[in-house]
Amino acid sequence: MSTGEELLRSKGLRVTRPRLAVLDVLAAGGHLEVDEITRRVRERLDSVSTQAVYDVLGALSRAGLSRRIEPAGSPARYEARVGDNHHHVVCRGCGEIADIDCTVGSAPCLDPHTAHGFEVDEAEVTFWGLCPTCQARRSADE
Ligand SMILES: [Zn+2]
Ligand SMILES: [Zn+2]
Ligand SMILES: [Zn+2]
């Protein structure tokens, strides 16, 4: 388990307190919206603007230290789980997101019949459904 400082240095990024704080927040797990990340970073650092958090997330994502996902109809979310080929299942009811391990194991998972000459490196797969909470709510409503 490497520290945030080691992670940043390994990618040639300058070590700053906001970057360390964002890495720390993401390391707790989950798929977090920028607002939530900002709220948690402010528990660690006194004054951090939302724009600063956006900038940090952009730098971390470009460096491959965080992954940005943006399911249809949902704001962008960020997670620390990078470097594997996992997918996501999104609840149609409440927007809850969970990780789904790739059943194939390596990108791009799905081989198109024809790629029109493209060199394909990723298939973006999102599973949609109802989470357990929303299923229970639906049963209660019936
Ligand atoms: Zn739900
Ligand atoms: Zn994920
Ligand atoms: Zn896959």
Automatic annotation (TrEMBL):
Keywords tagged on the record: Cytoplasm, DNA-binding, Iron, Metal-binding, Repressor, Transcription, Transcription regulation, Zinc
Keyword Aminoacyl-tRNA synthetase recorded: no
Subcellular location: Cytoplasm
Main location class: cytoplasm
Pfam families reported in the protein's UniProt record: FUR
Similarity section: Belongs to the Fur family.
PANTHER family registered for this protein in UniProt: TRANSCRIPTIONAL REGULATOR FURA, ZINC UPTAKE REGULATION PROTEIN
Name of protein: Transcriptional repressor
Native source organism of the sequence: Micromonospora thermarum
